[in-house]
Amino acid sequence: MRYFILAALVVFGDQCLKSWVSANIAVGGERTLIPGVVRLTHVNNYGAAFSMLEGRRTLFLLLTVAVCSVIAWLLLTGAIRGRLGRISAGMLLGGAIGNALDRAAAGYVVDMFEFIFIKFAVFNVADIFITFGGLLFCLYALLNEYGQKRARARTEPAGIGTERGQGVAAGGHGADEDVGDDATK
Known about the structure:
- By secondary structure, the chain is mostly helical.
- It has one domain (2-151).
- It has helices spanning 2-24, 57-77, 83-106, 125-155; strands spanning 30-34, 38-45, 109-115.
- α2 (57-77) packs antiparallel against α3 and α3 runs antiparallel to α4.
- The longest helix has 31 residues, at 125-155.
């Protein structure tokens, strides 16, 4: 449940800032946020990331509904295990909903953050959470796969080269166990 609250907080923050920018900065207008680093530039983005696929509003909305449904289902069923996976899913869900609300209501997404020191796309709070949520979910998936491989290695019989045939399943020690600490086993 707390990961749905995280998603709701992302949506709330995203929508509040977009509303403020829309009310206080004209489209194309800008205000310095951190001199020499970042400014708020009001842009209406009719496409996806980097304004790709402009004019595909219905497609984006359908994809967002599908993706959000899958993420919510995975969270509700417990298919995503571990805090990192759930936090990243909440971030992705909140970011996706934040941008979908703009597309559904206005037909475009309000973007506002623009780096001054480097040429990069203008983006918003939802984009930040989608990006970092996606990166964290990839990290979660990699760590989860690594953990599963380690667990399988501990339960599978030892292969060639194991002393006296004592694999993990036969009572031997796994590669990452401390063999000198038998008193605690």
